[in-house]
Amino acid sequence: MRPIAVRMEGTQKQPSVAGMPSSELVHLVLLALALLIAALCVGLALLWAHLRYWDRRLGVILTYELEERIATPDGTAIELRRLPRGTEVVPDLPPVILVHGLGANHRNNDLDADLSLARTLKASGRDVWLVTLRSGLSRITRAEVKLVRFAAMVRHDLPLAIDTVLERTGSPKVDYVGFSMGGMLLYAALEHTVPQTKLRRAVTIGSPALIRPPWPLPRWLVRVPPLFLFTLRLRLFARAGAFASEWVRTPFHRIVFNPDNVAPGIARRALANLVADVPGGLNMDFAVWALSADGRLMLDGESVLDRLAEVEVPALFFAGGADRIAPAEAVHAAYAAWGLRHPGVEKRFVLLSREAGAHGDYGHGDMALGLHVSEDIFQPIVEFLAPRV
């Protein structure tokens, strides 16, 4: 009888890394992932608590007669806020529309009860409306973010805001005040999407017609595919860092505003309340203008300055003597072009510098929040928009 061969298989050794069995390695990886997720959750919880705490300390709550979100024809929205009207409303004067700038919301013109162009105008007897453009919305979907472009705001946001206010008030005209991009939008919209017959008077504050960036931009920026355009998440960083914003002064401070011209505590309150994100498409619009041969503001291939020559609306222009975002010469270009073919048009250019008679050398943001902004800007605007004798 032949013996039966029995094949004995030895126990398979588990693969290992650096002498460690694979089962232990898996356990360590899972533990590391669990710790990472836990740390992330703790970090988010701490950030939420931090934001909640400083929102309570620095947040501003103001009352309005009306707050309304209005859909735009292309699929996003704007917001309108009407200030409570006083008992002494000046008769026969149109409503005043205030439009904010880039990276801001309606708080740009209504930060608090004491530092507010909107409430200064209301105290003078005006019916005041605050516009929040699509770029300033705090609640916005990813699909809506893609619709935030300068041309879209010219085509939809400004006409919608003006027509809605005219309809609600029954007035044939409005007085318009634009801060920074709010004025630039008016330059582009007049006689394009907004007939000048709908405006009685106009004011722009730090609104350039030539784009002069405060630092050099790389030329390849304009060739970035739309897929890679990213939103500048300014709102979260501003709210998170507002509490410490006045501890030290950095070069960035002087780009945004003149710290010597802003009272203590105001910058913290502004960062906590008025900053908005800047979507990638809108960043690209400004980059294209800044990198062009002369930096001209363009719309649909046409120079906005050329169209301003036909405007006959009386206008007041403010420019900061120390403004690095909208240099005085870039604002003056709009003033010079305004009504160029109508020599009799009423217009005035105000340079906000000590040498020119202002209380300080104004940067950009302090034209809304400066120490003496009431005397240097708010009251002159009230007077310019007052009844004509």
Short structural summary:
This protein has helices spanning 22-58, 117-123, 142-145, 150-169, 181-189, 234-241, 251-256, 266-273, 280-290, 304-308, 328-337, 366-369, 373-384, and strands at residues 16-17, 20-21, 66-71, 77-82, 96-99, 128-132, 174-179, 199-205, 298-299, 302-303, 315-320, 347-352. The chain has 389 residues and is α/β, with parallel strands linked by helices.
Quickly give the structural class.
Answer: alpha/beta
Q: Low-confidence parts lasting 5 or more residues at pLDDT below 50? A: none
Q: What is the typical, i.e. mean, pLDDT?
A: 90
Order of neighbouring strands in the sheet with most strands: 3-4-6-5-7-8-11-12
Q: What report would you give on this structure?
A:
This protein is of the alpha/beta class and 389 residues long. The chain has a single domain, classed as Rossmann fold (3-Layer(aba) Sandwich). It has 13 helices and twelve strands. The protein has helices at 22-58, 117-123, 142-145, 150-169, 181-189, 234-241, 251-256, 266-273, 280-290, 304-308, 328-337, 366-369, 373-384, and strands at 16-17, 20-21, 66-71, 77-82, 96-99, 128-132, 174-179, 199-205, 298-299, 302-303, 315-320, 347-352. The strands form three sheets. An eight-stranded mixed beta sheet has the order 3-4-6-5-7-8-11-12, sandwiched between helices. Strands 1-2 form a two-stranded antiparallel sheet. A two-stranded antiparallel sheet has the order 9-10. Strand 9 and strand 10 form a beta hairpin. It starts with 15 loop residues before the first strand and ends in a 5-residue tail after the last helix.
